[in-house]
Amino acid sequence: MSYIYEAMEKSKETIMKLFNNNESKYKDVFTIINNIWTRQLHCPLHADDHFLNLEFYYSNLEMEYDLKVTNGLYACIKRLVSSKDVQQEILTELPLYKSGSGLFGVDFEKESRKTQSQVRHLNVL
Q: Which structural domain range is residue 120 located in?
């Protein structure tokens, strides 16, 4: 799912470049894309998966400030984890993920962020 989210962002960047960043030329195209994305494709789970994809997160640390993505992360935590204690534990551990420390800072883990599948990373944790 995170690859869908990333592909959408890259596609929009490409469209912008093709129109020389002239918003008046791509505005209508973006309206169509955003309507389809919002109605059919975007959901908190996509945003959550995008945030937790090690390859994407660590190559774009500004993602932490993308409200759509972080809201999706928190919505998924709330929906998928019923225990308030476990929710709090996840939120306590989140800074380790963001800073690349703990298990996320181990040398072999850092080296494999772009070469190993996301599933392998989740199995390590």
A: 2-124
pLDDT at 42: 72
Say which range, 70-74, 94-98, 105-109, has the weakest mean pLDDT. Answer: 105-109
Rounded to an integer, what distance in angstroms lies between the CA atom of residue 76 and that of residue 78?
5
- Cα separations (Å) of 32 from 21, 44, 68, 69? 17, 20, 19, 21
Q: What pTM did the predictor assign?
A: 0.63
- The Cα 89–Cα 87 span in angstroms is 5
Domain count, the chain: 1
Nearest 10 degrees: CA dihedral of 113, 117, 119, 122?
Answer: -10
> Identity (one letter) of the amino acid at 64?
E
CA dist 106 and 38 (Å) reads 37
In one-letter notation, the amino acid at residue 113 is: R
List the one residue out of 110, 4, 13 whose CA is nearest residue 59.
Answer: 110
